[in-house]
Amino acid sequence: MYGRSWYSRFAKWASHFCGQPYVFSLAVGVILVWAVTGPLFAFSDTWQLVINTSTTIVTFLMVFLIQNTQNRDTAAMQIKLDELIRATKGAHNALLDLEEIEQDTLDGFRAKYEALATAARSQLDLGNLDTDCPEP
Predict the structure, then answer these.
(1) Domain of residue 20, residue span
(2) pLDDT-derived band at 58, boundaries 50, 70, 90
(3) Do 63 and 110 reside in the same domain of the chain?
(4) 79 and 38 in a common domain
(5) What backbone torsions phi and psi does residue 104 show, to the nearest 5 degrees?
């Protein structure tokens, strides 16, 4: 599978598994069992510590799994967008790989496109079309 590491395969599997409705139901069930056992353990500090520690560990580990999945999905989306820009006649190839440029340069691109959007909205207000294609 294109040399994916064991961690990438595991993170993808775990993200898919944890996103299933029955896993959510299982988590709710664990909370309910914990809550119902409160009187049995006299709502002791240990009883509270079990749920606090368990949820902290699960949350800590899930942060890394979610971040891995988000990074992979974002990278794939950026590549797809770059290919659409590259393959579209008249598109500005300077917009490829914007996520890698310095913030000041990115802000300059954003200002340019915000100005185009403002001008297009003004044209709509005048009853004109807002479609446009830059000159090659």
Answers:
(1) 6-95
(2) very high
(3) no
(4) yes
(5) -60, -45
Same domain, 85 and 118: no
Give the Å distances, CA to CA, from 9 to 6, 61, 65, 70, 108. Answer: 5, 16, 11, 14, 38
Name which of 4-8, 37-41, 50-54 the model is least confident about: 4-8
DSSP per-residue letters across 5-49: -HHHHHHHHHHHHHTSHHHHHHHHHHHHHHHHTTTTTTT-HHHHH
> In the predicted model, what is the mean pLDDT of residues 9-24?
90
Same domain flag for 124 and 73: no
User: Does 105 lie in the same domain as 88?
Assistant: no
